Amino acid sequence: MGAAETESATAFSAKRTAGEPTPTRLRTIDDLDLAGRRVLLRADLNVPLKDGRVADDARILASLPTIEELRHRGCAIVLVSHLGRPHGVDAALSLRPVAERLRQLTDAPVTLAPAVVGDDVQRLAEGLRPGEILLLENVRFEPGETTNDSRLADSLAALADYYVNDAFGAAHRAHASTVGTADRLPSAAGRLMEREVGALSAILEHPARPLVAVLGGAKVADKIGVVRRFLEIADSVLVGGAMAFPFLAAEGHRTGASRHASEDVAIAASVLGASHAERLELPDDLVVAQSASADASRQTLESVDVPDGWLGLDIGPHTAERYAERIAGAGSVFWNGPMGVFEIGPFAAGTGAVAEAVAASAAITVVGGGETVSAVRRLGLERRVDHVSTGGGATLELLEGRILPGVEVLAQ
Ligand code: ADP
Ligand code: MG
User: Fold this and answer.
1) Could you tell me if 100 and 180 lie in one domain?
2) Is the dihedral of CA 236, 237, 241, 244 positive or negative?
3) Best mutation site among 371, 374, 378, 389 for ligand 1, i.e. most ligand atoms within 8 A of its Cβ?
4) Considering just the CA atoms, what is the radius of gyration of the chain in Å?
5) Is 393 a catalytic residue?
6) 174 with 230, same domain?
7) Residue 406 lies in a domain
8) Is the pTM here over 0.85, yes or no?
9) Do 83 and 150 belong together in one domain?
């Protein structure tokens, strides 16, 4: 491997300062002479399971283009992914259901390895023929995965000649299968990784103007870094969902029983006091109810002062219309976070209006976030968005300007 390469990669990372954007020029599979070779492919196959089956195969589908391209180039593929957060070997988090779904989606023979690494796995890898796939067991069955243990990374790297990382959703973690293996083998980004980093970096570095960011959802503390970043680079930042309440509270409005943590109000106040705060737009009307259920009494408030005992569960129709107009007039749009509790019919209108506006807009549109993407999908609008990001935490960290270790090791 060795140690020297690992050290130099670490030294290189350390030279970069936080806040500097993740590099956009990645080595890609066009840069490697892969024909007929064995490739260790890290994918993000961390799919939801139900009754022992894959409940949503979106991540498997997103990984297929790289899998098929490598197969067409005569590669044998050793596929590696995590699934959930097992503590040691856990049959309930085996990749068996993923192997079954993969067999239905590709013509390739797919073998599920009995473990992550070891003599049996090594033999299976060495016996692979061009076009065949060996799916390793859940890499987090090995405790060395999340600590980027050098022995595990050595064993993984011994399974192949080349390393390709397509797991953008795991790129914010410096694990054995994301960073350790990249340090040990000639490595490159897969097509999904390339597309994710390309689409998100384009928004950050040379967006068509005006750049409009729509930010909502519930995880305010996790997303405040993204709010700050977009206030610097965007022309407007439209805030909805539970994220609006700390800001409204900081402006002195009553928030009733609306969901927000008191520490978020102080953070929101500091954002409102910083430069470019005028770019931030907040709701001016709200849908409120006495509880978050479809049959609770509810009303549309023409203000943002929530009465005691009521909670704000959606942006109001006037705000939805204003946000939709901004989106219609944008050159680029980034959207993360629902505008309300869209899972419950009476509070879904604001999210629906934003989704429709994003789909209809002539702007370059990028949508990210687990619930946001599921809202867009539910409305059947996914194909009308230019880029649907598959990364949760990784997408937010990249936009915030943090260094993603899994991307950093693939930089040119
Ligand atoms: P994403 O997964 O798209 O990044 P988050 O995880 O931050 O989004 O938040 C999504 C959740 O936020 C949704 O389940 C939605 O019900 C919730 N939410 C949105 N607006 C509100 C609100 N006003 N009050 C409570 N929860 C809300
Ligand atoms: Mg979420």
Assistant:
1) yes
2) negative
3) 371
4) 23
5) yes
6) no
7) no
8) yes
9) yes
Number of H helices, E strands in the chain: 15, 17
Residue 282 structural domain: 207-400
Cα-based distances in Å from 248 to 67, 342, 387: 47, 20, 31
d(CA 377, CA 399): 22
Ligand 2 center–CA 47 separation, angstroms: 15
Residues 266 and 217 grouped into a single domain: yes
Per-residue pLDDT of 61-85, as tens digits, reads 999 999 999 999 999 999 999 999 9
393 shares a domain with 264:
yes
Asked whether residue 201 is domain-assigned, the answer is no
Q: Which of 42, 59, 173, 229 is catalytic?
A: 59
Task: Confirm whether 298 is a catalytic residue.
Answer: no
Residue 50 in 3-state DSSP?
strand
From the list 19, 52, 370, 380, the catalytic residue is: 370
Question: Is residue 225 located within the same domain as residue 177?
Answer: no
**What would the mean pLDDT of 165-180 be, rounded to a whole number?**
96
Report how many domains make up the chain.
Answer: 2
Query: Where among 135, 162, 195 does a domain terminate?
Result: 195
- Contacts (Cβ under 8 Å, ≥6 apart) of 240: 214, 215, 216, 283, 315, 319, 323, 337, 338, 339, 340, 350, 354
Residue 2, pLDDT > 50, answer no
Dihedral pair phi/psi, residue 349, rounded to 5°: -65, -40
**What CATH number did the domain enclosing 31 receive?**
3.40.50.1260
Is residue 351 within 8 A of residue 243, CB to CB? The reply is no
217 lines ligand 1 (CB under 6 A): yes
